[in-house]
Amino acid sequence: MGTQVEQTDQKDYVPQIVDEQLRKQKEIDDWLPITSSRNAKWWYAAFHNVTAMVGAGVLSLPYAMANLGWGPGVVILVLSWTITFYTLWQMVEMHEMVPGKRFDRYHELGQHAFGEKLGLYIVVPQQLICEVGVDIVYMVTGGKSLQKVHDLVCKGCKPIKTTYFIMIFASVHFVLAHLPNFNSISGVSLAAAVMSLSYSTIAWAASIHKGLQRNVEYGYTAPTPSDTVFGFFTALGDVAFAYAGHNVVLEIQATIPSTPEKPSKGPMWNGVIIAYIVVALCYFPVALVGYYMFGNGVEDNILISLQKPTWLIVMANMFVVVHVIGSYQLYAMPVFDMLETALVTKLHFKPSTPLRFITRNLYVAFTMFVAITFPFFGGLLGFFGGFAFAPTTYFICIILGLLLMILSPIGGLKNIIDKAKEYKFYS
């Protein structure tokens, strides 16, 4: 009789354990930035995708064209747009391909494809390299754009180190980093999306206004064939960086509500279509008009080549600053989610505001420090561009992806080494 009572108690006890585990998991999910809010509209997906993709990389596209040449450059631009559009559609479809389950994070899809452990080992390091790398590049971009504004507005003023401008840019993120989830940064993201379209338009319109430069040339300018090849590799990374944005697609879709009757892929797909129209309106005019007007003498940031009128270049640089503020936050959010998940589930910290405050401030401080130490805009674009594409877009197109992942960081690394020879740290 006693044994029967014990067995009955054990049967009652098991569901209690399961219920407690589910309660704790829900508590954690309600706190984490990716899963805490699922009431986004389709237009949230549109401007989040624009903000994620149309980054400062668009300003380097004419320079990439100069290293690629007209034929290969146009082909690579069009191919990149087409392939990324196709693979983005695949990811939207895969978000809920298992009935009753949502792949809210990119590594969860990786685990479904490759297994619980292998999926993590394959996806998480590369996604982190991409997202942290992009945030470092945006720290450099924001700081240099602020410096450009200062130098144009105050021409007689004493020069200020790039280091200080990067620190000024970082100070904004020490505040914005504490917005809790994706939906809470929607206002910042919308402003960033509008700014990206604005400065892209300024870039190509001002290029047309400046006109075709005297003695413009379109051939390769590198002194040796090996330098030409390295430049080509770097340019591949620049284009890859410009189209990077798939790394946060599943996380963006996770914020959209979903039911069996109305799955999230419907509104997400509407947002993606709008986003890709904006991408085309930004990228193709900037790349083609910028290269046509300046030829192989174009700078690695088209705004530097433009120079005048001063007020327009100041405005464009401020637009860049606002945009990269939003982009930084968009790429940082999945990193915050990974860090906070690990701290709460693996190290058993209690979900709390102080934990989030310390974690996010340390992350912003880290990206600021690396950006201050290595502020090589063009080289960083090429180096991180390959890593930015491979984990998401091109693993679906595996051969192209591996080639891009191997070749573009080689070119970017050489560019960084060349710049480092003349560079003084923290100047």
Short description:
With 427 residues, the chain is an all-alpha fold. Helix content is 75%, strand content 0%.
Helix content: over 70%
Strand and helix order: HHHHHHHHHHHHHHHH
Structural class: mainly alpha
User: C-alpha Rg, in Å?
Assistant: 23 Å
The profile of the biggest β sheet is: none
Number of DSSP helices?
16
C-alpha end-to-end distance: 82 Å
Shape: globular
Give the overall pLDDT as a whole number: 82
The quaternary organization reads as single chain
Beta-strand percentage range: under 5%
**Low-pLDDT ranges:** none
> What is the number of E strands?
0
SSE diagram, text form:
Layout: H1 2-29, H2 42-53, H3 61-68, H4 70-94, H5 106-114, H6 116-153, H7 162-176, H8 186-210, H9 225-243, H10 249-253, H11 265-294, H12 302-306, H13 310-346, H14 353-373, H15 377-396, H16 398-422
Helix pairs in contact: 2-8, 2-11, 2-13, 3-4, 3-9, 3-11, 4-9, 4-11, 4-15, 5-6, 6-7, 6-13, 6-14, 6-15, 7-13, 7-14, 8-11, 8-13, 9-15, 9-16, 15-16
